[in-house]
């Protein structure tokens, strides 16, 4: 009693009063967070969630650079000559084409391709219940498929382990973006985004207009050099006067082959209402099996197929990037960052009655990060930690359980009592809390930010996950 | 721990369970939900009413995704204006989604809430499921 000022404070003794005193202040301090800030896929957002891009945006800057540089050189070096000798329409047409190409490119890159939001914990539990009728929790359940009839054609729907749902037909999971995308065509590194239902028309207009632009510039440059060499009586002289034209020629020559080829291929796909994904896998070509398999989605009419794909109604974005996160999920993130243990206990208990068992297990696992090291912690949590590890059915479970045990071990090494060193813990809490907002995601795939902090095993969400393309 | 739990009890009824009505892909990729009456709702409401609700929802989604002269015109106009026209006006789909939201709110007030049920707008679940929340039967007047 004499040394009471150095005694370890019992967090449960603190539980009620500081919580009520601090939480209203917390609520005022914490600004409402938008859903894009907690988005589980590998995407980056701009303009407060209005624009979306894949994290692996590859060579988008290169694409933009090539287009801008080539067009810039064209307008600067070839146009003056051609305007003088031919017509002023040339830069006008070139300008219109250039603007259209850039607009289509930016639209393709920054539009949500048709990402499907991941299933909520309740939905996932409901589906799991329907499938796992045996009751035993196998370590790695076999891939689940469901067969349905579409237009008298048997189509297999695969279960996506990351998104915890049966994928709708024509939907595929992009392993680069870690999202299920509707009517998935392909992930285009040139454009820095997936091409799917919502941005296919922009992608198509981009490649068509780019074919026109490159052909146009190519033709104009050839004309320019020809006219100059006729005037100067020598092609070498002409080239020496306008070296930029050679650069443009080279770029356009190599681009034309690939771009025209791609445009032709996609025109064929549009006319037969196919996606690149389906075409490559030969889903409907009848190569597999003896039974007749035609494309069940085609309207059997080229014009209808084209209109449906390119001019059909524009579906809305399903991921609601700019919506606000519900406040009860935002609060643990705020509270945990300021105060480590106490606010979490009542919160997790209050939620118990409204969430599924798995969700509860997730939250207890999360709270065990704190409780496990504090002597006055809830004794229930330690067996629960093992329970979660063994019962989690996701394929990413090995990394999660080992990651969690490593996390607990590391924290044990760092500091036996979290209250004495709030800094180390609060950072961990905030990161964990951000991703405990939807525990279903954490269960399936440890987030890359966690892996970056070396809390979980270094590998990204691809570990153990077989891309169900 | 127990204090906060009981306070919440007084404010809103506890959720007993949730029923999920999945998508029906028999006609392709269009948005359509199964109209089969879930067994968990048998004690709470009429099969007829449920099927009517689902059928109306399906019809509304079909209207949103309908391919026709009007949607083609909208698509072409959008393309010509470099899609800037959508800064000023809503797409046809968005207009129908608003209609659907209104219809669901209506149905909740008239039919589902008095029976301790709540329909969640499928757009909030990414058009994957129609989520029906079943609240515990506590004879509370306004089920929320």
UniProtKB/TrEMBL annotation, chain A:
Q: Does the keyword Transferase apply?
A: yes
Annotated ranges, domain Palmitoyltransferase DHHC: 156-281
Q: Which UniProt keywords apply?
A: Acyltransferase, Membrane, Transferase, Transmembrane, Transmembrane helix
Superkingdom to which the source organism belongs: Eukaryota
- Cellular component GO terms held in the UniProt record: endoplasmic reticulum; Golgi apparatus; membrane
User: What EC number(s) does its UniProt record assign?
Assistant: 2.3.1.225
What are the TM regions of this chain, as residue ranges? 59-77, 83-106, 202-227
Could you confirm whether the keyword Membrane appears in this record?
yes
Q: Where, subcellularly, is it found?
A: Membrane
Main location as per UniProt: membrane
PROSITE patterns, alphabetized: DHHC
Q: GO MF annotations for this entry?
A: protein-cysteine S-palmitoyltransferase activity
Q: Which reactions does this protein catalyse?
A: L-cysteinyl-[protein] + hexadecanoyl-CoA = S-hexadecanoyl-L-cysteinyl-[protein] + CoA
Task: Give the membrane topology, semicolon-separated if more than one.
Answer: Multi-pass membrane protein
A biological process (GO) of this protein is:
protein targeting to membrane
Query: Family per UniProt?
Result: Belongs to the DHHC palmitoyltransferase family.
Q: What is known of its domains?
A: The DHHC domain is required for palmitoyltransferase activity.
From the Swiss-Prot or TrEMBL record, give the protein name: Palmitoyltransferase
Organism of origin: Poecilia mexicana
TrEMBL record, chain B:
Q: Does DNA repair appear among the keywords?
A: no
Q: Which InterPro entries match?
A: Golgin_A_7/ERF4 (IPR019383), Ras_palmitoyltransferase (IPR051371)
Q: Where in the cell is it found?
A: Golgi apparatus membrane
Location, primary (coarse class) = Golgi
Q: Keyword Acyltransferase on this protein?
A: no
Q: Which GO terms describe its cellular component?
A: Golgi membrane; Golgi stack; palmitoyltransferase complex
Bilayer disposition of the protein: Lipid-anchor
The Golgin subfamily A member 7/ERF4 domain covers 19-131
Q: Which UniProt keywords apply?
A: Golgi apparatus, Lipoprotein, Membrane, Palmitate
A single GO BP: protein targeting to membrane
* Origin: domain of life: Eukaryota
Report any Pfam family annotated for this entry. Answer: Erf4
General function of this protein: May be involved in protein transport from Golgi to cell surface. The ZDHHC9-GOLGA7 complex is a palmitoyltransferase specific for HRAS and NRAS.
UniProt similarity note: Belongs to the ERF4 family.
Q: What is this protein called?
A: Golgin subfamily A member 7
Q: State the organism named in the record.
A: Poecilia mexicana
The organism that produces this protein has a lineage beginning with: Eukaryota, Metazoa, Chordata, Craniata, Vertebrata
